[in-house]
Amino acid sequence: MKHISFSEMKIWAECPFKHKLMYIDRIKKFIGNEYTAFGKAIHTLCEHALIGTVIESDFEEFFDENFENEILALSDQELDLKLVEQMSLQARKIYPLILPSIQDVFGDYEVFSTEEKLYEDIEDFDKEPYKFKGFIDLVIKTSDGKYHIIDWKSCSWGWNAQKRTDKILTYQLTLYKKYFCAKHKIDPSKAETYFALLKRTAKKDNVEIFRVTSGERKTKNAGNLLGKALSNICRENRIKNRMSCDRCEFRKTENCK
Length: 257
Prior knowledge:
- Helix content is 43%, strand content 20%.
- The protein contains nine helices and six strands.
- Strand 3 and strand 4 form a beta hairpin.
- It is globular and about 55 Å long.
C-alpha cells in the first residue's frame, strides 16, 4: 500500500519539486557524512542501553565499534578524520548521562518499546488508501499509566528557542503520537511527546530531554498538513518553492536549473 513518512511530508512542505526529485524520480544527493554516522551510532547505543542489551561498563566499546562501522560505510567519501576523532571523544560526555537523564525526568518507568514501527491507516484522507510510516525511537510507560514518546536528536551545542518551537519539526512527534495511539488504541490524553538532545559540544547537560506539546489543535493542524501534502502528491502538483532554493542540494544542478 502507498505510504508517507514524516520525512517525506517535511520535504514536500519545503518544496514540492524537491519532493518529486527525491520520492518520484528517486534522485538522492545526500548520502551521509560524519554527523549522520555519529547520530546513527549514538542512537544505537541509546536503544541498547534502554533495553539492557549492553551494560554501562561496555558503552564506550559498543559506541566506538558502531561509530567505526558507520564511518567505514562512508569510505568512498573524503572525511574529516580530525572531526571523527573529536566526535569519539565527545560521545564520552553523552553516554554516561543517557539512563540517568531518563530517570531524572520520568522517575520510575518501564520501557514499552524501542524503534517501534508505525504503519497505520491515514483515515482522514479519503481520496485513496495511504499509510503513515515511521519509527519511534523510544516509548516508556510511567507508573501513572502515561506513555512518553521520545525522539533522540544528536546535535552540537543544543537547539535555540526558534528550533525548539519550529512547527514542522515538532509535527514529527505530533504525528507519532497520533498514530501510536491509534495503533494501540490508547487515549491521546495518556500520551506525551519529547525530544531528547544528545549534545556533542555542550559544556554541561549533554543529554537534555524536553517536552513538546501535542494537543488536539496541534494534532489537527499536523493532520491537515499531511492531508494537504497527500492531496497535492496525488494530483502531481510539483511547483518549485523558490524561497527554499538557498538551502537545497539540488540548486543549480542538472535536476533543478
